[in-house]
Amino acid sequence: MVFFEILCGIAAVLLAVYYYLTSTFDFWKSRGIRGPQPIPGFGNYKDVMLVKKHMADYLKKIYDNYKDESMIGIFTARTPVLVVKDPDLIKDILIKDFTKFADRGFPLNEKVLYA
């Protein structure tokens, strides 16, 4: 009986971890934006995280695989990331709607930048 309870506890923990890792994976699909299927724990960056591919090569591959899309939705682990390809949308984001997108992206360590 104790073995069954331990087994159920382990199964519940594994299910909770799996749900936590995959709970955001419908983010782009629900918004109608196409992208590659993410992998739990890695998102779409498995080969980059395992140092099999450089980030630039991976993004170029995704860019080429979705030629007809103006935007591509990918994931870094659990975090959704939007890759914008359309020059007009890029212009709107960087100029017209800059205040809405100013603090997005990768965090920088300013001590390193201004040392």
TrEMBL record:
One Pfam family hit: p450
Protein topology in the membrane: Peripheral membrane protein
Residue stretches spanning the membrane: 6-28
Superkingdom of the organism of origin: Eukaryota
Cofactor(s) needed by this chain: heme
One of the record's GO molecular function terms: iron ion binding
Any single Gene Ontology cellular-component annotation: endoplasmic reticulum membrane
Family matches, as InterPro entries: Cyt_P450 (IPR001128), Cyt_P450_sf (IPR036396), Insect_CytP450_Detox (IPR050476)
Record localization: Endoplasmic reticulum membrane; Microsome membrane
Keyword terms: Endoplasmic reticulum, Heme, Iron, Membrane, Metal-binding, Microsome, Monooxygenase, Oxidoreductase, Transmembrane, Transmembrane helix
Stored PANTHER family: CYP9F3-RELATED, CYTOCHROME P450
Similarity section: Belongs to the cytochrome P450 family.
Protein name as catalogued: Cytochrome p450 6a2
Species: Lasius niger
